[in-house]
Design brief:
The chain is built from nine helices and 21 strands. By secondary structure, the chain is an alpha+beta fold.
């Protein structure tokens, strides 16, 4: 008896999803809890797993189809765990073959009645001789007929709907935008249109943090099982700056200002599917090792497409690190409905003045975009300076200054 394959139960914040791909096709045997399909939503990719040992007997929703929560997308047939019923698979394949179009006959590549030059061209270009109209005696195909056929084939328009020819006869490929990419595009446009976004800049001397990492990095990794990175310091600095400036941690809801009594920090991660922002919940209660472990875990899950909806919901402030890609300076876009976002950039050795002397220091530009409807320039600059001071004097992080 066939078992229904259903899409996952979506949270209330997700209306529907799109079938991203089927990892198993009709007739393929699968093990229990093996992923057989993926459903892409506006936020994450959800997996559909096999309920038991068996095989996919029927696919009802193909790739690109829109599906609702818990909707039937296919059918599944059970089999023994040690023997996935090869005979059933063979029967299914035979059945599909019967219902499909009649098997194609092997094309007649060449014919003895054609000239040797024509037969040679037909073989070299893997052509079907029956599709070529012969102009010789008794409809024999000549070399000129094959050449004309090839010329006509080259001039024929492409049948692939993903390919098109521009006016200058250059190839182009058209593909549908993924649901995640489409959602990101809409959100970014909405933020630009609905907020009064402004960006303020500063720079920070990263030498003290780099010296800390060089001095204690190996001991830290041995003790806690995770590398001592830069992001953990920025999260702690942001948390403490948010406590001093609660307005930066607030958001606008209609005509109200919502002040959040907690600091949930989003860490932007770039993936093949697009930018995602997992949330470190209650970041103010976590130590530096706990933060580094959370950052590493979320980054790996984001790149593997394993983030859950809950791990991406909420957030009161976001940190984005374009420096890992070599960005020297940028203006990050707000992650609505948050009031501000901090942009980190690449560390670059530059000459700076220290105590009346020019020295070379590892400097990083910081950028903070904020919603000017709620946050004035004075508060934004003060907030960014607070982060700068904490990073340039790490003892402030420990003393909460």
């Amino acid at each position: 008896m066939a078992i229904e394959i259903k899409s996952p139960t979506f949270p209330e914040s997700i209306a529907d999803g799109t079938v991203a791909n089927w990892l198993k096709q009709e007739g393929e045997s699968v093990n229990q809890d093996e992923v057989i399909a993926e459903i892409e939503t506006d936020k994450v990719v959800l997996e559909v797993v096999a309920p038991s040992y068996g095989f996919v007997s029927k696919i009802l929703k193909v790739e690109g189809d829109i599906v609702n929560s818990s909707e039937v997308i296919g059918e599944f047939s059970e089999s023994d765990a040690t023997n996935t019923s090869q005979s059933k698979v063979e029967k299914l394949v035979e059945k599909n073959d019967e219902t499909s179009a009649a098997p194609k006959q092997e094309p007649q590549k060449t014919s003895n009645k054609n000239g040797p030059a024509a037969n040679k061209l037909i073989s070299e270009n893997n052509l079907d001789a029956s599709s070529i109209k012969g102009s010789g005696k008794d409809n024999r195909i000549t070399k000129a007929d094959v050449v004309s056929h090839l010329d006509a084939k080259d001039q024929a328009p492409k049948t692939d709907h993903n390919l098109s020819q521009s006016g200058s006869n250059r190839p182009e490929k058209r593909v549908s935008m993924t649901r995640l990419r489409s959602t990101i595009a809409k959100r970014l446009v909405n933020v630009q249109q609905e907020t009064a976004m402004l960006t303020t800049f500063n720079e920070v001397d990263m030498l003290p943090i780099k010296e800390l990492r060089a001095k204690y990095g190996q001991e830290f990794e041995k003790q806690h099982g995770v590398k001592l990175g830069f992001m953990g310091f920025f999260v702690i600095a942001a948390v403490q700056a948010l406590k001093k400036s609660p307005i930066v941690n607030a958001s606008i809801d209609g005509g109200d200002v919502v002040y959040h009594g907690y600091q949930d920090i989003g860490v932007a991660v770039s993936t093949e599917r697009g930018l995602v922002v997992p949330i470190i919940k209650d970041a103010d209660t976590k130590s530096l090792p706990e933060l580094e472990k959370s950052i590493l875990e979320y980054s790996e899950k984001a790149r593997d497409g394993k983030l859950s909806i809950d791990e991406m919901q909420g957030g009161t402030f976001t940190i984005s690190n374009g420096g890992v890609f070599g960005s020297l300076l940028s203006t990050p876009i707000l992650n609505a409905p948050q009031t501000a976002i901090l942009g980190m950039h690449t560390i670059q050795e530059r000459p700076v003045a220290r105590n009346g002397e020019v020295v070379i220091r590892p400097m990083m530009y910081l950028a903070m975009s904020y919603d000017h409807r709620l946050l004035d320039g004075k508060e934004a600059v003060r907030f960014l300076v607070s982060i700068k001071e904490q990073l340039e004097s790490p003892e402030r992080l420990l003393l909460n200054l």
